[in-house]
Protein backbone atom coordinates (compact mmCIF):
# COMPACT_ATOMS: atom_id res chain seq x y z
CA UNK A 1 0.00 0.00 0.00
CA UNK A 2 1.45 3.36 -1.04
CA UNK A 3 2.02 5.95 1.66
CA UNK A 4 -0.25 8.98 1.13
CA UNK A 5 1.19 12.48 1.13
CA UNK A 6 -1.61 13.87 3.32
CA UNK A 7 -3.93 12.32 5.89
CA UNK A 8 -7.20 14.17 6.39
CA UNK A 9 -8.47 13.86 9.97
CA UNK A 10 -12.21 14.41 10.01
CA UNK A 11 -14.12 13.92 13.30
CA UNK A 12 -17.89 13.54 12.94
CA UNK A 13 -20.66 13.61 15.51
CA UNK A 14 -24.17 13.61 14.01
CA UNK A 15 -22.97 15.38 10.88
CA UNK A 16 -25.12 13.64 8.27
CA UNK A 17 -26.77 16.86 7.02
CA UNK A 18 -23.64 18.23 5.33
CA UNK A 19 -21.38 15.17 5.32
CA UNK A 20 -21.91 14.08 1.71
CA UNK A 21 -20.87 17.47 0.38
CA UNK A 22 -17.82 17.59 2.66
CA UNK A 23 -16.60 14.14 1.59
CA UNK A 24 -17.34 14.89 -2.06
CA UNK A 25 -15.14 17.98 -1.85
CA UNK A 26 -12.21 15.77 -0.87
CA UNK A 27 -12.77 13.47 -3.83
CA UNK A 28 -12.55 16.33 -6.32
CA UNK A 29 -9.11 17.43 -5.05
CA UNK A 30 -6.67 17.85 -7.93
CA UNK A 31 -3.95 16.37 -5.73
CA UNK A 32 -5.04 12.75 -5.37
CA UNK A 33 -2.42 11.24 -3.06
CA UNK A 34 -4.33 11.44 0.21
CA UNK A 35 -6.27 9.38 2.71
CA UNK A 36 -9.12 10.49 4.97
CA UNK A 37 -9.61 9.12 8.45
CA UNK A 38 -13.28 9.65 9.31
CA UNK A 39 -13.75 9.26 13.06
CA UNK A 40 -17.42 8.55 13.75
CA UNK A 41 -17.69 9.75 17.35
CA UNK A 42 -20.85 7.89 18.38
CA UNK A 43 -23.21 9.44 15.80
CA UNK A 44 -26.88 8.41 15.86
CA UNK A 45 -28.19 10.22 12.76
CA UNK A 46 -27.15 7.89 9.94
CA UNK A 47 -23.62 9.25 9.64
CA UNK A 48 -22.27 5.70 9.67
CA UNK A 49 -24.30 4.76 6.57
CA UNK A 50 -22.92 7.68 4.57
CA UNK A 51 -19.36 6.91 5.65
CA UNK A 52 -19.61 3.27 4.68
CA UNK A 53 -21.00 4.20 1.25
CA UNK A 54 -18.02 6.43 0.51
CA UNK A 55 -15.51 3.93 1.93
CA UNK A 56 -16.98 1.11 -0.18
CA UNK A 57 -16.52 3.17 -3.33
CA UNK A 58 -13.18 4.88 -2.54
CA UNK A 59 -10.52 3.10 -0.50
CA UNK A 60 -8.88 6.40 0.42
CA UNK A 61 -11.58 6.79 3.09
CA UNK A 62 -10.79 4.94 6.32
CA UNK A 63 -13.68 4.76 8.80
CA UNK A 64 -13.06 4.58 12.55
CA UNK A 65 -16.12 4.02 14.76
CA UNK A 66 -16.02 4.79 18.48
CA UNK A 67 -18.33 5.61 21.38
CA UNK A 68 -18.87 9.33 21.84
CA UNK A 69 -15.72 10.74 23.46
CA UNK A 70 -15.59 14.32 22.21
CA UNK A 71 -13.68 16.15 19.50
CA UNK A 72 -10.27 16.08 21.20
CA UNK A 73 -10.30 12.31 21.61
CA UNK A 74 -11.51 11.87 18.02
CA UNK A 75 -8.82 14.17 16.60
CA UNK A 76 -6.02 12.51 18.53
CA UNK A 77 -7.13 9.03 17.47
CA UNK A 78 -7.11 10.10 13.84
CA UNK A 79 -3.63 11.60 14.17
CA UNK A 80 -2.24 8.46 15.81
CA UNK A 81 -3.63 6.19 13.08
CA UNK A 82 -2.68 8.45 10.13
CA UNK A 83 -0.07 7.13 7.68
CA UNK A 84 0.98 10.37 5.95
CA UNK A 85 3.75 12.75 7.08
CA UNK A 86 1.28 15.64 6.85
CA UNK A 87 -2.03 15.90 8.72
CA UNK A 88 -4.78 17.87 6.98
CA UNK A 89 -7.79 19.04 8.95
CA UNK A 90 -11.36 19.10 7.69
CA UNK A 91 -14.79 19.31 9.32
CA UNK A 92 -17.97 17.50 8.35
CA UNK A 93 -19.89 20.66 7.46
CA UNK A 94 -17.25 22.45 5.36
CA UNK A 95 -16.34 22.28 1.67
CA UNK A 96 -12.75 22.17 0.38
CA UNK A 97 -12.02 23.89 -2.92
CA UNK A 98 -10.58 21.56 -5.59
CA UNK A 99 -7.08 23.10 -5.49
CA UNK A 100 -6.78 23.19 -1.70
CA UNK A 101 -4.28 20.35 -1.19
CA UNK A 102 -2.35 21.13 -4.38
CA UNK A 103 -1.68 24.73 -3.28
CA UNK A 104 -0.71 23.70 0.24
CA UNK A 105 1.59 20.96 -1.06
CA UNK A 106 3.29 23.47 -3.31
CA UNK A 107 3.71 25.92 -0.43
CA UNK A 108 5.34 23.43 1.96
CA UNK A 109 7.60 22.19 -0.84
CA UNK A 110 8.98 25.71 -1.26
CA UNK A 111 9.04 26.43 2.51
CA UNK A 112 10.49 23.29 4.09
CA UNK A 113 10.97 25.00 7.46
CA UNK A 114 7.20 25.53 7.87
CA UNK A 115 5.37 23.05 10.10
CA UNK A 116 1.81 24.41 9.77
CA UNK A 117 0.00 26.10 6.89
CA UNK A 118 -3.58 27.37 6.80
CA UNK A 119 -5.49 29.59 4.36
CA UNK A 120 -8.31 32.08 4.03
CA UNK A 121 -11.92 30.88 3.85
CA UNK A 122 -15.22 32.14 2.52
CA UNK A 123 -17.92 31.75 5.16
CA UNK A 124 -21.22 30.26 4.02
CA UNK A 125 -24.55 29.78 5.76
CA UNK A 126 -26.56 26.58 6.25
CA UNK A 127 -27.82 26.75 2.65
CA UNK A 128 -24.35 27.34 1.22
CA UNK A 129 -24.82 31.05 0.50
CA UNK A 130 -21.67 33.21 0.92
CA UNK A 131 -21.68 35.64 3.83
CA UNK A 132 -18.09 36.89 4.13
CA UNK A 133 -14.36 36.33 3.82
CA UNK A 134 -12.39 35.16 6.89
CA UNK A 135 -8.77 36.12 6.38
CA UNK A 136 -5.91 37.01 8.68
CA UNK A 137 -2.13 37.53 8.78
CA UNK A 138 0.05 35.23 6.73
CA UNK A 139 3.46 35.49 8.45
CA UNK A 140 4.60 33.66 11.58
CA UNK A 141 5.28 36.69 13.80
CA UNK A 142 1.95 38.35 13.08
CA UNK A 143 0.03 35.09 13.58
CA UNK A 144 1.69 34.50 16.95
CA UNK A 145 0.94 38.06 18.10
CA UNK A 146 -2.72 37.57 17.26
CA UNK A 147 -2.87 34.26 19.09
CA UNK A 148 -1.31 35.77 22.22
CA UNK A 149 -3.89 38.58 22.06
CA UNK A 150 -6.78 36.11 21.96
CA UNK A 151 -7.41 36.33 18.22
CA UNK A 152 -7.37 32.89 16.62
CA UNK A 153 -6.68 33.86 13.01
CA UNK A 154 -5.80 30.30 11.90
CA UNK A 155 -8.81 28.72 10.21
CA UNK A 156 -8.77 25.24 11.74
CA UNK A 157 -10.46 23.26 8.90
CA UNK A 158 -7.86 24.56 6.40
CA UNK A 159 -4.76 23.50 8.32
CA UNK A 160 -2.08 21.07 7.18
CA UNK A 161 0.68 20.28 9.71
CA UNK A 162 3.64 17.99 10.12
CA UNK A 163 2.60 14.82 11.93
CA UNK A 164 5.95 14.34 13.69
CA UNK A 165 5.84 17.87 15.13
CA UNK A 166 2.23 17.38 16.11
CA UNK A 167 3.06 14.21 18.03
CA UNK A 168 6.07 15.85 19.68
CA UNK A 169 3.92 18.79 20.80
CA UNK A 170 1.46 16.46 22.54
CA UNK A 171 -1.40 16.75 20.00
CA UNK A 172 -4.67 18.28 21.18
CA UNK A 173 -5.18 18.62 24.95
CA UNK A 174 -8.43 17.61 26.67
CA UNK A 175 -8.14 20.32 29.32
CA UNK A 176 -8.54 23.00 26.64
CA UNK A 177 -11.47 21.45 24.79
CA UNK A 178 -13.50 24.06 22.84
CA UNK A 179 -10.31 26.10 22.31
CA UNK A 180 -8.17 23.04 21.59
CA UNK A 181 -7.06 24.47 18.25
CA UNK A 182 -5.77 27.77 19.65
CA UNK A 183 -3.95 25.84 22.38
CA UNK A 184 -2.21 23.66 19.78
CA UNK A 185 -1.28 26.63 17.57
CA UNK A 186 0.32 28.43 20.52
CA UNK A 187 2.46 25.38 21.29
CA UNK A 188 3.42 24.81 17.66
CA UNK A 189 4.53 28.44 17.21
CA UNK A 190 7.26 27.70 19.75
CA UNK A 191 8.49 24.71 17.76
CA UNK A 192 8.74 26.24 14.29
CA UNK A 193 7.23 28.47 11.64
CA UNK A 194 3.51 28.67 10.93
CA UNK A 195 2.00 30.47 7.95
CA UNK A 196 -1.19 31.07 6.02
CA UNK A 197 -1.71 31.16 2.26
CA UNK A 198 -3.54 34.37 1.26
CA UNK A 199 -5.98 32.43 -0.90
CA UNK A 200 -9.50 31.14 -0.27
CA UNK A 201 -9.21 27.35 -0.16
CA UNK A 202 -12.32 26.33 1.78
CA UNK A 203 -15.97 27.18 2.36
CA UNK A 204 -16.50 27.46 6.12
CA UNK A 205 -20.10 26.80 7.15
CA UNK A 206 -21.74 28.86 9.89
CA UNK A 207 -25.08 27.67 11.26
CA UNK A 208 -27.11 27.42 14.47
CA UNK A 209 -25.66 24.03 15.47
CA UNK A 210 -21.99 24.86 14.95
CA UNK A 211 -19.70 24.95 17.98
CA UNK A 212 -19.10 28.68 17.51
CA UNK A 213 -22.85 29.24 17.95
CA UNK A 214 -23.64 26.79 20.76
CA UNK A 215 -20.50 27.08 22.92
CA UNK A 216 -19.57 30.73 22.45
CA UNK A 217 -19.39 31.89 26.06
CA UNK A 218 -17.68 28.67 27.18
CA UNK A 219 -15.07 29.24 24.48
CA UNK A 220 -14.43 32.76 25.81
CA UNK A 221 -13.86 31.49 29.36
CA UNK A 222 -11.53 28.76 28.14
CA UNK A 223 -9.66 31.27 25.98
CA UNK A 224 -8.97 33.47 28.99
CA UNK A 225 -7.56 30.48 30.86
CA UNK A 226 -5.49 29.43 27.83
CA UNK A 227 -3.94 32.87 27.39
CA UNK A 228 -2.95 33.00 31.05
CA UNK A 229 -1.15 29.67 30.60
CA UNK A 230 0.47 30.63 27.28
CA UNK A 231 1.83 33.91 28.61
CA UNK A 232 3.16 32.22 31.74
CA UNK A 233 4.96 29.61 29.60
CA UNK A 234 6.68 32.42 27.71
CA UNK A 235 7.49 34.38 30.85
CA UNK A 236 5.49 37.44 29.76
CA UNK A 237 2.58 39.13 31.54
CA UNK A 238 -0.92 38.32 30.28
CA UNK A 239 -3.05 41.05 28.67
CA UNK A 240 -4.30 43.44 31.36
CA UNK A 241 -7.75 43.48 29.78
CA UNK A 242 -9.55 41.84 26.85
CA UNK A 243 -8.03 43.07 23.61
CA UNK A 244 -10.53 41.71 21.10
CA UNK A 245 -14.13 40.66 20.69
CA UNK A 246 -12.90 37.09 20.39
CA UNK A 247 -11.45 37.33 23.90
CA UNK A 248 -14.39 39.12 25.58
CA UNK A 249 -17.42 37.06 26.72
CA UNK A 250 -20.83 38.36 25.74
CA UNK A 251 -23.87 37.92 28.00
CA UNK A 252 -26.26 37.06 25.20
CA UNK A 253 -25.48 36.75 21.51
CA UNK A 254 -27.90 38.13 18.93
CA UNK A 255 -29.76 35.61 16.74
CA UNK A 256 -27.47 33.90 14.26
CA UNK A 257 -29.61 34.97 11.28
CA UNK A 258 -29.24 38.67 12.25
CA UNK A 259 -25.49 38.39 12.61
CA UNK A 260 -25.12 36.59 9.29
CA UNK A 261 -27.33 39.15 7.53
CA UNK A 262 -25.21 42.05 8.76
CA UNK A 263 -21.99 40.27 7.90
CA UNK A 264 -23.19 39.42 4.39
CA UNK A 265 -24.17 43.05 3.73
CA UNK A 266 -20.86 44.38 5.04
CA UNK A 267 -18.92 41.85 2.94
CA UNK A 268 -20.71 42.67 -0.29
CA UNK A 269 -22.77 39.48 -0.62
CA UNK A 270 -25.99 41.39 -1.19
CA UNK A 271 -28.04 38.49 -2.53
CA UNK A 272 -27.47 36.61 0.74
CA UNK A 273 -28.21 39.72 2.79
CA UNK A 274 -31.39 40.34 0.81
CA UNK A 275 -32.57 36.80 1.55
CA UNK A 276 -32.20 37.36 5.29
CA UNK A 277 -33.78 40.81 5.00
CA UNK A 278 -36.82 39.39 3.19
CA UNK A 279 -37.20 36.73 5.86
CA UNK A 280 -37.14 39.40 8.57
CA UNK A 281 -39.73 41.49 6.72
CA UNK A 282 -42.08 38.50 6.59
CA UNK A 283 -41.56 37.76 10.26
CA UNK A 284 -41.71 41.32 11.66
CA UNK A 285 -42.46 43.94 8.95
CA UNK A 286 -42.23 47.01 11.19
CA UNK A 287 -39.35 46.14 13.53
CA UNK A 288 -36.58 48.65 14.13
CA UNK A 289 -33.99 45.98 13.30
CA UNK A 290 -35.60 45.42 9.89
CA UNK A 291 -35.55 49.14 9.15
CA UNK A 292 -31.87 49.42 10.08
CA UNK A 293 -31.02 46.35 8.03
CA UNK A 294 -32.89 47.73 5.01
CA UNK A 295 -31.05 51.05 5.18
CA UNK A 296 -27.62 49.42 5.66
CA UNK A 297 -28.21 46.98 2.79
CA UNK A 298 -29.25 49.78 0.43
CA UNK A 299 -26.35 52.06 1.33
CA UNK A 300 -23.72 49.34 1.00
CA UNK A 301 -25.14 48.02 -2.27
CA UNK A 302 -25.18 51.50 -3.83
CA UNK A 303 -21.63 52.15 -2.60
CA UNK A 304 -20.40 48.90 -4.15
CA UNK A 305 -22.06 49.74 -7.46
CA UNK A 306 -20.50 53.20 -7.44
CA UNK A 307 -17.00 51.93 -6.56
CA UNK A 308 -17.22 48.75 -8.62
CA UNK A 309 -15.96 46.59 -5.75
CA UNK A 310 -17.34 43.07 -5.35
CA UNK A 311 -16.21 40.07 -3.29
CA UNK A 312 -14.91 36.94 -5.04
CA UNK A 313 -17.48 34.60 -6.56
CA UNK A 314 -16.53 30.94 -6.27
CA UNK A 315 -17.98 28.24 -8.53
CA UNK A 316 -17.54 24.63 -7.38
CA UNK A 317 -18.36 21.32 -9.06
CA UNK A 318 -21.97 20.21 -8.60
CA UNK A 319 -21.50 17.28 -6.22
CA UNK A 320 -25.22 16.46 -6.30
CA UNK A 321 -25.04 15.65 -10.00
CA UNK A 322 -23.10 12.48 -9.30
CA UNK A 323 -24.04 11.85 -5.67
CA UNK A 324 -27.78 11.48 -6.23
CA UNK A 325 -27.26 7.75 -6.80
CA UNK A 326 -24.25 7.41 -4.56
CA UNK A 327 -23.61 3.68 -4.63
CA UNK A 328 -23.63 3.18 -8.39
CA UNK A 329 -21.59 6.17 -9.49
CA UNK A 330 -19.02 6.01 -6.72
CA UNK A 331 -18.55 2.25 -7.15
CA UNK A 332 -18.13 2.70 -10.89
CA UNK A 333 -15.46 5.36 -10.37
CA UNK A 334 -13.59 3.09 -7.96
CA UNK A 335 -13.49 0.38 -10.62
CA UNK A 336 -12.14 2.89 -13.14
CA UNK A 337 -9.46 4.10 -10.70
CA UNK A 338 -8.29 0.55 -10.05
CA UNK A 339 -7.93 -0.21 -13.76
CA UNK A 340 -6.59 3.22 -14.77
CA UNK A 341 -3.02 4.09 -15.69
CA UNK A 342 -0.56 4.97 -12.87
CA UNK A 343 -1.29 8.67 -13.48
CA UNK A 344 -5.06 8.97 -13.19
CA UNK A 345 -6.94 11.93 -14.63
CA UNK A 346 -8.27 14.76 -12.47
CA UNK A 347 -11.66 14.24 -10.85
CA UNK A 348 -14.52 15.71 -12.86
CA UNK A 349 -18.03 15.76 -11.52
Protein model, in words:
This protein is of the alpha/beta class and 349 residues long. The protein has one domain (6-228, 316-337): Spore Coat Polysaccharide Biosynthesis Protein SpsA, Chain A (Alpha-Beta Complex). Helices cover 45% and strands 17% of the residues. The protein is built from 14 helices and nine strands. Strands 1, 2, 3, 4, 5, 6, 7, 8 and 9 form a nine-stranded mixed β-sheet that branches. Helix 10 (256-267) packs antiparallel against helix 11 (270-283). The longest helix has 20 residues, at 288-307.
- Could you say what the CATH architecture is? Alpha-Beta Complex
User: What is the name of the CATH superfamily?
Assistant: Spore Coat Polysaccharide Biosynthesis Protein SpsA, Chain A
Q: Find the structural class using helix and strand composition.
A: alpha/beta
Order of helices and strands: EHEHEHEEHEEHEHHEHHHHHHH
Number of domain modules: 1
N- and C-termini, Cα separation: 27 Å
| Tally of separate helices | 14
Q: Which percent bin holds the helix content?
A: 40-55%
Q: Any idea what the shape is? A: globular
**CATH fold name:** Spore Coat Polysaccharide Biosynthesis Protein SpsA, Chain A
Amino acid sequence: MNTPQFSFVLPIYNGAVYLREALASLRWQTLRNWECLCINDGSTDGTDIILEEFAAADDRFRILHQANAGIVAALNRGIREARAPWIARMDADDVALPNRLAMQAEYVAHHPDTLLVSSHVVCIDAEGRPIGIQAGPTEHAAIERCLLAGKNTINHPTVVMRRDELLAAGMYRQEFEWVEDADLWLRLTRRGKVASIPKILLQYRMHDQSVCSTRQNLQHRMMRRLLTTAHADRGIPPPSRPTSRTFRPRPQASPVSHRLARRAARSGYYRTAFGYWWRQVNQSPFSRATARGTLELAVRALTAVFLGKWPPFIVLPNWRAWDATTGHLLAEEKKQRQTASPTPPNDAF
